[in-house]
Amino acid sequence: MSATPQLVTGRAELAATLAAPRRDGARVGLVPTMGALHEGHASLMTRARADVGDGPVVVSVFVNPMQFGPGEDLDRYPRTLDADLEVCADRGVDVVFAPPVEEVYPVWPPSVTVDPGPLADLLEGVTRPGHFAGVLTVVAKLLGLVRPDVAVFGQKDYQQLVLIRQLAADLCLGVEVVGAETVREPDGLALSSRNRYLDAEQRRHALALHRALRVAAEAAPSGLSAALDAARAEVRDAVGVDLDYLEITRPDLSPVPRDAPAGTEARALVAARVGTTRLIDNLPLVLGHTGGTA
Q1: Is residue 286 a contact partner of residue 254, using CB atoms and an 8 Å limit?
Q2: Are 100 and 72 in contact (CB under 8 A)?
């Protein structure tokens, strides 16, 4: 495959493009995105390349209408295909799949969708009902269209990553789902396409999310309650931040049990609005003695 990305917009062209390398036994990697690519996305491409070697790396660029709820930012979500192609070229991506909506959803609204199960009703699902049904439906479609051996997702969208892993396992999709570490600015702000909506003052306010996660990690040796209390106090005292949730769960997003032993792995997750922009972040941590549940 050429190091210059081939732009593909249709199903048939995508299948034809991947047919030869697949016949030759090459592994195929997929990085699903909604575009507006940044260094966080670029790191996923690098990881996909490491996993498939000389096989083709496919980046999908598709703003999925099904995962946006009423009043969310579908219309203003940035669409920057020319710049996205440059990012992909810099990372040696072989194919950019940027289909129109009708290629992904020949029938709208779709008659068959993916039910993400009860895990989708927690955390993000409380504020964004139906969001993960949209995410898992489009991911299932992209996995079916590309048929990758490896699909790489960022850990910043941690609940999404957990659900996609569950999707792949429960539906026997035969794809390895890889979670790549969150890429951050030097001051700790997680890279996100939505960061461009923040003005300079709001961006300073947004740093409270990462501070709260760091505080949780620092307090974690003293137990679950200490970590939660410290992190929530950090956000509660922050200017310009409207907290949605801040929780600590097990890595699979189940509650941390009261009798969890010292050394229990956990995940701190936070979501908040800064101005009109909703941001999420998370961080792994290790708990000492626990004093309650999340």
Answers
A1: no
A2: no
The catalytic residue among 38, 41, 131, 210 is: 41
Share of the chain above pLDDT 70, in %: 97
The yes-or-no verdict on residue 107 having pLDDT over 80 is yes
Going along the chain from its start, the domains and CATH numbers come out as 6-180 (3.40.50.620), 193-287 (3.30.1300.10)
pTM of the model: 0.94
With beta carbons less than 8 A apart as the criterion, state whether 245 and 158 touch. no
According to DSSP, residue 190 is labeled B
Q: 194-231: per-residue pLDDT in tens?
A: 999 999 999 999 999 999 999 999 999 999 999 999 99
- Hey, CA dihedral for 103, 107, 108, 114, is it positive or negative? negative
Distance CA 66, CA 277 (A): 20
Q: Could you tell me which residues are beta bridge partners of residue 264?
A: 287
For residues 252-284, b (16+ Cβ closer than 10 Å) or e, as one string?
ebeebeeebeeebebbbbbbbbbbebbbbbbbe
Q: Is 55 left (phi over 0), alpha (psi -120 to 50) or beta?
A: beta
How far is CA 282 from each of CA 125, 239, 259, rounded to the nearest angstrom? 16, 20, 23
* Residue 3: per-residue pLDDT: 67
Peptide bond into 284 cis (omega under 30): no
Q: Which helix (H) or strand (E) holds 219?
A: helix 200-219
Give the three-state DSSP class for 159. Answer: helix
Please indicate whether residue 205 is annotated as part of the active site: no
